[in-house]
Amino acid sequence: MIEATEAIELEKETISLERVPTKIYKDAAEASKAVAQEIAKIIRKKNASGKPAVLGLATGSTPKKVYAELIRLHKSEGLSFENVITFNLDEYYPMQPDAVQSYHRFMKEQLFDHVNIAPENCHIPTGTLPLEKLAIFCKEYEAQIEELGGLDIQILGIGRNGHIGFNEPGSLVNSKTRLMTLDITTRMDAAGDFGTLVKVPRRAVTMGVKAIMEAKRVVLLAFGEHKAQVIKEAIEGPVSEKIPASYLQGHQNVRFILDEASASELSSRKKPWLFDEVIWDKMMVKKAVTNLALSLDKPILKLTNRDYNENGLSDLLANYGQAYDINLQVFQSLQHTITGWPGGKSLASDANRPERAFPAQKRVLIFSPHPDDDIISMGGTFQRLVDQGHDVHVAYQTSGNIAVADDEALRFIDFLDDFNTAFDIENKKYNTVFEEARAFLSKKKDSEIDIPSVRYVKGIIRQGEAKATCRFVGIPSSNVHFLDMPFYETGAIQKMPLGEADIKIVSNIIAEIKPHQIFAAGDLADPHGTHKVCLDAIFESLERLKKEDYMNDCWVWLYRGAWAEWDIHEIEMAVPMSPTQVLQKRHGIFKHQSQKDGVVFQGNDSREFWQRAEDRNSATADLYNKLGFAEYAAIEAFVRYHF
Ligand code: F6R
């Protein structure tokens, strides 16, 4: 039960209109610092009153930065964990505590090994007890928490299916700590950690919803666009066992801590004009009008004064006077985004085109985080730029080696082996590398980290595929650059932070090519992901190079990664594709054979990459069509980045 006297006070602040108090931060780093501060405050307060602080902790990618900040507070500000007792939410079952994917190991690596907490004060559900002993274990786990007076704070992440802890959809509000069968979404999301879906355990031991609801304070964190939909459902939807996180709507001292991306589907973000006064700048008008047209299923030019008034846009109407004027302004601005000349059209005026006409032949540098992002996300535009005579370079930022399956690597090693035997080629270095790789792969344990020679093999497989795509699109091999940014080379999902060496590599290629156009992956869907780090390296390089003369002529266009598209109101360049061009792009994507047929990082979307790309590009074309524009087969979309 919540004891009023012990409940940690809510700071006074503006609370949004959602059914759960929500605070939205610029990014995960800022949000995590605030949460770490809150935990530190609880630890200090409890210590001052001579009591231990009882913390409920979560694992997963979300709270990592909170733990990093707690370690920092311990090391540089003397925050002591001597009097801290922790209870983790869950552990896979079965799971050895020292396994790479174990939550026991995670907590040691992310927090416990770096602070002065006594091992006996750290409690994590078991992954090793025999089945028949689990019921007793779970009962005792809850009893231990109760004996200590309950959890002072429970930190939560949220699954894309709405789970908290491993309380999967269907879990009841009074569910106890127990063995739980994992939902397929959860298992698919974990597949990357285990190498493949079949190796993800089917069960886990989790603290129940009841124990979570009894915590005196609950803080749920969610970062990244991939959490946006479930966050909307948990905060704005009905309380339902279908989304266990929605139970938190009934908690008396809860807060959701979000970044901009995870908050992006909330009504207050999607339709801010319904909640507050807004500044009607061009972007906001475009957002409101496209939203209105799509929700009423009417083309923009058919929207009436009444449509505006009846749908919360009377304020906008009052500013402009007539629907006709607003409609026209938005329609034209969208019309001007559409171009078949992504590098500019030198024989026509560029007054209403997204790109400059001159120089007629531009130097173009496409950054591709992985070896297939260029073709998947902007294959049609890539082809047009080449066909329209621009000097197109591609820089593949990382090797992408961890996305190659072991079987695939062995297939290539076999090929090379046969090749070497047949031609009796003496190449000591290569033979050693491949022999070493084969020996490792033949004995590789589940999710053991690949040794450098295996990563090398997997890396050259992906390089070969990228080269094949570039040949197919028609650029010379001298325009293909493999940057192999070092931050990526851990052999694991967890990458190193962006380093000086990475930034130098990216800056050097920009300085070498002096591009008029840069295309980069502006994918923020996964804040921990490779795309974001690759983008940060580009942004930092642009910052460093911006004083160079040639940078005055450099425009930067951002494409989205494989998973999502820009919102229609954000798009600044829309490049249409004909059915033939769509097919050509498909064949370009086919060059990436190692990424076909159930890849290592499939996610919960069973479609192949070419299918995702086609669905997405045709969906964008559909949106333009619904808003009243011509019916294209597909459209690739870009946003301009001003540095
Ligand atoms: C972890 C846990 C899970 C995660 C959730 C989100 O202990 O109980 O509920 O919080 O699956 O995982 P990430 O943070 O990896 O997106």
TrEMBL record:
PANTHER family: GLUCOSAMINE-6-PHOSPHATE DEAMINASE-LIKE PROTEIN BT_0258-RELATED, GLUCOSAMINE-6-PHOSPHATE ISOMERASE
Primary enzyme class: hydrolase
Domain of life: Bacteria
Coiled coil: none
EC number: 3.5.99.6
GO MF annotations in UniProt: glucosamine-6-phosphate deaminase activity
Protein name per UniProt: Glucosamine-6-phosphate deaminase
Pfam (any one): Glucosamine_iso
NCBIfam families reported for this sequence: nagB, PRK02122.1
Keyword terms, alphabetized: Hydrolase
Glucosamine/galactosamine-6-phosphate isomerase domain location: 27-252
